[in-house]
Amino acid sequence: MRIRSIKPEFWRSRDITALSWDARLVFIGLWSYVDDNGVGRFDLASIAGDLFVQDLCDNPRDTLARLSRALQQIISNGLAVVYEIESKDFIFITGWNK
């Protein structure tokens, strides 16, 4: 996982305020999950294991459901895209190089 910083204007962005609280937290978590190009494997268990390991141990069903909903919201709002290469799914954070 990488160390990333959050700019204060993040919280006032219309793209971010349109998200649920869960989706905002997941979106920030994705910044440390993806590589330096903004790309990571799109695998629910891997993402949950990196971002919410204790929650995953305590309540896996709820954790995966909440994570799935948050990711769908992030993707449907255009903040990330999922694509496939050689039968493997990846997630890319749009606007990564901003």
How do the strands and helices of this protein lay out in sequence?
Layout lengths: L13 H4 L3 H13 L5 E3 L2 H8 L1 H6 L1 H17 L3 E6 L2 E6 L5
Helix pairs in contact: 2-5
Brief overview:
It is built from 5 helices and 3 strands.
Verbal overview:
By secondary structure, the protein is an alpha+beta fold. The protein is built from 5 helices and 3 strands; from the N terminus they run H-H-E-H-H-H-E-E. Strand 2 and strand 3 form a beta hairpin. The chain starts with 13 loop residues before the first helix and ends in a 5-residue tail after the last strand.
- The helix count comes to 5
| Helix/strand class | alpha+beta
CATH topological fold name: Arc Repressor Mutant, subunit A
Uncertain residue segments: none
Any idea how many domains? 1
| Topology pattern, helix = H, strand = E | HHEHHHEE
Distance between the termini: 20 Å
What's the alpha carbon Rg, rounded to whole Å? 13 Å
Strand neighbour order, sheet with most strands: 1-3-2
Features:
15% strand; Arc Repressor Mutant, subunit A; 3-stranded antiparallel beta sheet; single chain; alpha+beta; 98 residues
